Amino acid sequence: MKRQLYLAAGWVSVGLGTVGIFLPILPTVPFMILAAFCFARSSPALEAKLMNHPKYGHHLVAWREKGVVSRRAKWSATTAFLASALIGALTLSPPWSLLPAAVGLVCGTWIWRRPEA
């Protein structure tokens, strides 16, 4: 039962990470990191496939081995957070319009405090 829960959580994380490619508020790599974690506990073959992915594999390996985030990834995340905050400010009414900026500030601070590759 535990294995199936990890497997399901891994697939949900991959799905959310894929959606994150197109939506600025949803990050891609953290969901892929979570998917790798879940697949490591449920399906070694899926974990290996994710760790060897040509686009995300090196980010996952760097995070797993050293806990690092590349400078390019940091700037990409910051740009996505700023875009989300701007979209939220233009489309949401107060106080909800502050939520994307608050999330971006908290998450951006955490990301920029991670070591770089």
TrEMBL record:
Protein keywords: Membrane, Transmembrane, Transmembrane helix
Name this polypeptide is given: DUF454 domain-containing protein
A Gene Ontology cellular-component term: plasma membrane
Species of provenance: Sphingorhabdus pulchriflava
Parts of the chain that traverse the membrane: 6-39
Pfam families from the UniProt entry: DUF454
InterPro entries reported in the protein's UniProt record: DUF454
Domain of life from the UniProt record: Bacteria
Phylogenetic lineage: Bacteria, Pseudomonadati, Pseudomonadota, Alphaproteobacteria, Sphingomonadales
